Amino acid sequence: MSRTIDNAPYTAFHRRLALACSGGPLLDGYILSIVGVALIGMRPELGLSTADVSLIGAAALVGMFVGGALFGVLTDKIGREVMYTADLIVMIVCSVLSFWVDAVWALTLLRFVLGMAVAADYPIATSLLAEWLPAKHRGRLLGQQIIAWYAGAVLAYLTGYLFLTFGGPGSWRWMLGSSTVLCVVFLVIRRGSPESPRWLAANGRVGDAVRLVEKHLGVKVDGRELMPEPTAPGAPTGLRLLMTPPYRRRTLFCGLFFLCQVGPLFAMLTFGPQLLEAFGMPGGTVLETLGTGLISLVFLLGCYPALRLIDTWGRRPVIIRSFALMIVPLAVLGLFPDAPAAVVVVALCAYAFLCGGPNVLDWTYPNELFPTEIRATAVGVATSVSRIGAAVGTYLLPLSLSGIGTGPTMLIAAGVTACGLLVSVLWAEETRGTALGAAATTPGTAPRKARAARPAPQPVR
Asked: Considering the entire predicted model, what is its pTM?
């Protein structure tokens, strides 16, 4: 376990790395949200049916299910740095090709591949970031990655609004292709980002790990402390290790709470304009798009108090109280679907704000609860499981709105959220202030208080 990294001073290097790692979440928020706006113009131009719309909306999420599990395992095997930019190149190619699509199958395929690339970035970037961060700042900076997701969603709706207002017919093509610009920007930002010293040490490259720590953190480190705990010959690894008794409950917890959170959330964001219209908002384009953009902004704002609370209250109380409160506005919308527009907007915004707690823990928990050798695998599996709910919710939302109505649809969302509450009450652990190695290798409930910090390492002279 690395005391040096856990107790290292927080520097500009950490800030730069956090910015570089935020590219995946930001692009995810942008790519998943922009299609909801693009569908406004795409639907009449391509003659899309309700089933086509659902398929296009869910394709990226299905891709994320496949990509999360596949590339999480691969990232633990070949390293974080190797794949750190490759996934962005795939996103660029798919974004450019999306501009030219004319068939549902082609767009569905491109969205599927985009989803795989986005999901690949989560285990790559968040595990890399977690393995470089000091313990004191780990929760906040991992939690801030979700802020990038909502920033991407808000940017998508703003971009979509501008294209709808000034772009005219066919502007949906420019919307789908616009993610190319963001991909290129983060491709440049990520140049020079280092490999994880913990991963290097775990794979026998202790000397390289020591040199990276001394170069980027400015502190001396004993290579032996970077080494993970030895494992017995023939012990399970990878996905098999996730399903062993010490980690099985954690794997289920991370996947299920993530699933229960993002299932309703992604459906609302992807089809926000259609959802607001179902509640009786004025139809058309601009008002629906701006309304969904406002709700996305509230999702983002709700993350800021949650970032502070996970380091003051702790991870466990934040996730439990947040899920409990999130049920209330969804129940209101379900029981009173004909409520005035102001009530609908307030309820949706309240739900969005209260989502902040689970949001900032989406990547914090799986990165803290698993050791280096399976950390990216755990993040990938949690992402994959969550996207089952997101894909199902996104596919079913337009069908549910037209089939059983807005009230029952919102009550189903409240029920899914209640399942997230139950999972959190039963299995959420406390990792606040705990060294990364200690939190990851101690099954059961981790200590609520931080371990006594050792003196900060001295800078290299």
From this structure: 0.78
Long-range interactions of 341-348: CB distance < 8 A, separation 24+: 341/279, 341/280, 341/281, 344/276, 344/279, 344/280, 344/281, 345/291, 345/294, 345/295, 348/268, 348/295
Contact at 8 Å (CB) between 296 and 33?
yes
Buried b (16+ CB within 10 A) or exposed e, 220-236: ebebeebbbeeeeeeee
Residues paired with residue 459 on neighbouring β-strands, in sequence order: 219
Residue 333: CB atoms within 10 Å: 25
Residues with Cβ within 8 Å of 71's Cβ and at least 6 positions away in sequence, in order, are: 83, 87, 116, 119, 120, 123, 124, 380
User: What confidence score (pLDDT) does residue 280 get?
Assistant: 63
Residue 168 — very low, low, confident or very high, per pLDDT cuts 50/70/90? confident
Asked if residue 142 lies in contact with residue 367, where contact means CB atoms within 8 angstroms, the answer is yes
Token couple for 88: 């962005």
Per residue in 188-228, pLDDT (tens digit) is 998 888 998 988 988 888 899 999 999 999 888 877 777 76
451 pLDDT above the threshold of 60 = no
Compute the half-sphere exposure of residue 177: CA atoms within 13 Å on the CB side of its CA: 12
| Cα distance between residue 422 and residue 272, in whole Å | 27
Q: Which domains does the chain have, with CATH numbers?
A: 3-229+241-441 (1.20.1250.20)
Choose between 88 and 424: higher pLDDT: 424
Structure tokens belonging to residue 453 = 């910090």
∠ CA 85-88-89, nearest 5°, is: 90
Integer Cα distance of 30 and 319 in angstroms: 25
Cα 160 to Cα 181: distance, rounded to the nearest angstrom: 15
pLDDT at position 330 over 80: yes
- Of 46-55, 203-212, 260-269, 284-293, which gets the smallest average pLDDT? 284-293
For residue 459, the 8-state DSSP code is B
